Amino acid sequence: MFWLNGQPADSISLLDRSFQYGDGGFTTLLTEHGKLCQWPYHKQRMQACLAALAIAEPDWTLVERWLAVAAKPEPLAGLKLHISRGEGGRGYSSTQVSAANVTISDFAYPPHYRQWQAQGIDLGISQVTLGLTPSLAGHKHNNRLEQILVKADLDKHGLVDGLVLDINANIIETSIANVFWRRGEVLYTPQLDMSGVAGVARRRVLEFAQNAEIVVKIGRFDLSHILEADEVFMTNALLGAAPIRAIESQTFPIGPLTRRIQEMLVP
C-alpha cells in the first residue's frame, strides 16, 4: 500500500521531480510488530540527505505519525520512506517548486534474510563499477541508476549479490548492503566519501565498535585486502548483519565478531 503526504494513494503527479530527475532521497526501515525500529537514525540520515540536496525538511512529527499508521502489524516487516523536492520548476531549476512530497510504502520482510543471517551468503564481484560523486556520496538519493546496472550485471551471472568496486578498484559495498571484514584484531570498512551509501546499520556497527574498543580502520582498500580477511559480513537496516561465506572462490568462516554484531543489531 502507498501513502502520499499521509493519505492513501495509488498515483503521483508526472510533474514530481523525483519521477522527472531523481530529485530526492529515501530510507528503508525495519518494523517490529508495527513499531518503527531505529527511527532516530533514519531521520538523521534523511536530514543529511535533504541538506545535501538543499531540499526543505518536512514536518518530522507528521512523518513519524504517517509511518506509524503505515507499519504492518507482523513481527517483522518494512517501510520505505521517500521524499522528493516536490512538483514543478523549469528544467533542472528548483525554483517555483511546490512543497516536498512524502511517499510511504509498506512491504513484507524478505523471507530469505533469515537464511542469510543463519547460514551466510556467497558473493560474486560486479563487473559494473561506481563513479566518483563526492557531493552525493554516502547519501541514499533517488538516482539509483548505477545500482540498477550493478543488479542487472549480477542477475545476468546468476548471483544473488556481489561486491561492488569503484572506478579506481576500491571496495565500496555490495548491491544491497555495507561490508565489513576483520583481519586479526582490526575491523575494516570502506571509506564512503566518493561513492556508495552509508547505511543506518553501518553507523550502528561503528558506534558499537567504538564502545567495545574494537579497532576500526575506514579507508580505501582493493580487492586483495578483503580476500585475506579472517571473517567478512554485510549489513543493512532490514537484514541486520549476515556472514559472507565466500567472495567468488575465496571462502571465509563465520566468525565470532560477526555473531556479536548480529546480536547487537537484533531489534
Automatic annotation (TrEMBL):
Its cofactor is pyridoxal 5'-phosphate. One of its GO terms (biological process) is 4-aminobenzoate biosynthetic process. Involved in the biosynthesis of p-aminobenzoate (PABA), a precursor of tetrahydrofolate. Converts 4-amino-4-deoxychorismate into 4-aminobenzoate (PABA) and pyruvate. This is Aminodeoxychorismate lyase. It comes from Vibrio renipiscarius. It catalyses: 4-amino-4-deoxychorismate = 4-aminobenzoate + pyruvate + H(+). GO terms for molecular function: 4-amino-4-deoxychorismate lyase activity; pyridoxal phosphate binding. It is an enzyme of class 4 (lyase). Pathway: Cofactor biosynthesis; tetrahydrofolate biosynthesis; 4-aminobenzoate from chorismate: step 2/2. PROSITE patterns: AA_TRANSFER_CLASS_4.
